[in-house]
Amino acid sequence: MNVLFIEDDRMNRRVVRDMLDVAGATMAEAESAEIGLEMIDRDTYHMILIDLRMPGMDGITAIRHIRARGDAKAELPIIVVTADSGVDLRERCLAAGADDVIVKPVAMDQLFEAMGRILAGDRGGSMIA
User: Fold this and answer.
1) What's the pLDDT score for residue 84?
2) Is the pLDDT of residue 97 over 90?
3) Which Pfam families does its entry note (predicted)?
4) Between 108-119 and 10-22, two packed helices, what is the crossing angle to 10 degrees?
5) Residue 129 included in any domain
6) What 3-state DSSP class applies to 50?
7) What is d(CA 78, CA 99) in angstroms, rounded to the nearest whole number?
8) Does 11 reside within a domain?
């Protein structure tokens, strides 16, 4: 499985990379939404993990760009990985086109549970905090 993690914080990318390594997945990294969108154009991924708060384009806007594509990549599973919280966070992310939301700090079991649910076809599962 090839995962793209769009996240501006290097340490957060490293932690998630280590988790995905345990599962035998590979992870590509994008330090901004703009770079992530370019990478989606060039390469093949099975899933996207994305932060909400990044310099430049935010995660919600990036998700909308991905969902607006006119090709199969518009259907890539997307999990929001964020430190944000709030009453309407989940609803905003799902409305933008995310499939699930997990809240930092990310625990390996939370990440794998969300990924497993989506790969099993259960998009829009419960928010994991």
Assistant:
1) 87
2) yes
3) Response_reg
4) 70
5) no
6) strand
7) 5
8) yes
Structure tokens, 46: 């099975």
Name the nearest CA neighbour of 25 among 94, 65, 90, 77.
77
Domain that holds residue 16: 2-123
Greatest Cα pair distance, the chain, in angstroms, is: 36
What gap in Å lies between CA 129 and CA 46, rounded to an integer? 24
Question: Which amino acid would we find at residue 113?
Answer: E
pLDDT at 69: 96
Q: How far apart are CA 66 and CA 82, in angstroms?
A: 18
CATH, residue 90: 3.40.50.2300
Mean pLDDT computed over every residue of the chain: 92
Query: What's the whole-model pTM score?
Result: 0.92
Nearest to 83 by CA among 105, 57, 65: 105
- The number of distinct structural domains making up the chain is 1
Residue 100, token pair as written in the block: 């699930």
Question: Within a domain: residue 46?
Answer: yes
| CB-CB contact of 75 with 48 (8 Å) | no
Residue 76 lies in a domain: yes
The helix/strand/coil state of 51 is coil
| Residue 91: pLDDT band with limits 50, 70, 90 | very high
